[in-house]
What we know:
Elements: E1 6-7, H1 13-25, E2 35-37, E3 46-47, E4 62-70, H2 76-92, E5 103-110, E6 123-129, H3 132-140, H4 143-152, E7 156-164, E8 185-190, E9 193-198
Antiparallel strand pairs: 1-2, 2-3, 4-6, 4-7, 5-6, 8-9
Amino acid sequence: xQQQPVYDQLPSIDAIIHRSAKVHSxxxxxxxxxxxxxxxxxxxxxNLTNVPAPSMVSSTPITHIVLFKYRPDISWxxxxxxxxxxxxxxxxxxxxxxxxxxxxxxxxxQNNSWEPFSKGMTHGFILxxxxxxxxxxxLLQDKVxxxxxxxxxxxxxxxxxxxxKDGLLFGPKPRKPVGQGGGVERYxxxxxxxxxxxx
Length: 199
């Protein structure tokens, strides 16, 4: 019977994140992770130093997860108008150079969990974009989304936002686009489109 390998001094989460950040800054390199050794001393250790690091290619789809806690005094009509407007973003938010929708998918619904961990959030929204650049454009420059956000703000008491790339568990967070709160020039580049501006 072959025994399962055991880990030789697993690195801390901080070490993994630091190593991942270093690897990602030198794109294309491989990341030395850690060495596995068999429980049987006669076997040679397994070395995982040539395992490629996860790709940080900008074309990796990204999922934008938004949880809202709506104010309790919202009328049914306001809810219907808000949700209809939110759903329409998938077809109304258009790529600036192609004129076609760039949001890959959208799902939404009321919190339906019986678990007591919702932190008061009443509804969830899951939006998928083809890349970080598309999400940045949606959040920072898309006028249709900006108008929706302005109209939605009075209805929302609290929110939580998480953006994930499927399978990417460690590594550096994406940088906040230059100029957001810093007063310097800011660019969001979509394929075939470049916008600049002062913020």
